[in-house]
Amino acid sequence: MRIIVHGGAGGVPNEPEPRQATLDEAAETGAAAATPLDAVESAVRVLEANPRFNAGTGGALQSDGVVRTDAGLMTSDRSIGAACSMAGVEAAVSVARVVLAETPHIFLSGEHAVDLADDFGVETGVDLTTEEKRERYEAEDPPQGGPREHLAWLETRFGSGDDQAGNGGNKRTTPDHDTVGAVATDGETFAAATSTGGRSFALAGRVGDVPQVGSGFFCTEAGGASATGAGEDIARVTLSRRAVDHLADGLDAQAAADGAIREFEELTGSGAGVIVLGDETAGSAFNTDGMQTSVAYK
Ligand SMILES: NC(=O)C[C@H](N)C(=O)O
Q1: What is the pLDDT of residues 257-284, one digit of tens each?
Q2: What's the rounded Cα separation, in Å, for the pair 253 and 7?
Q3: Which of 3, 20, 103, 139 is deepest in the core (most CB within 10 A)?
Q4: What ipTM did this prediction achieve?
């Protein structure tokens, strides 16, 4: 098994070493798995369980102070599973896998996704909030009332506090850099997965690129990709699909990642990163200040 994992694109993390050690552990865990789907699920679960990453435990708080998790995965035969807006679910990637394996659908949301998790043995009711993120939220004088009040509150706080409309607003320095993802191959088939707590102080119920096929993740027989960064802008350009299309056009994984990020920047002026795995090659690219990755092979 060959696997590449990422720990999110954004600013340079405060403590890169322990994060890198966890990414290496995730890659090793995935490389030891039996199938590419098992590989990406098990690798992402290592990262979801670690509060240093904005996925599962340690996820970003939305405007109402709740962490809601999103994840998506896909295999090269175009099987897809995604789940979003789940309160109290650490292993979002495993819920996505339940959607893929156990339902005739590709995407489930909110309380129904949590019910599905519960019924299929994925733990629910987990406290995903870290003290540090709770304190950061409380210090921002949280909004009361309905969505209009929340929108007024998040105007100056969401992400890096810049314009949310695209057009270069979601700057490269966005602090929300800890989404996680993995792409794996056994030499014959591929799988890709991405998982996140979203973006800090987003409107309660907001869902970004991560569980949207082609945006946060994509996979065909040409290879797979997992994206991270300003989710609204990633969705605008379907970043992961773009990277995999470059593989299908014959580029190697590094050139595919570079091309996709170059186009993303030209089209949005925003910040993101992507990991790509093709036939023989792994690649990654980002236009933010940092993105940690790890590759393993067994
Ligand atoms: N840090 C991230 O990658 C955030 C994620 N792309 C989202 O918008 O939900």
Answers
A1: 999 999 999 999 999 999 999 988 999 9
A2: 18
A3: 3
A4: 0.97
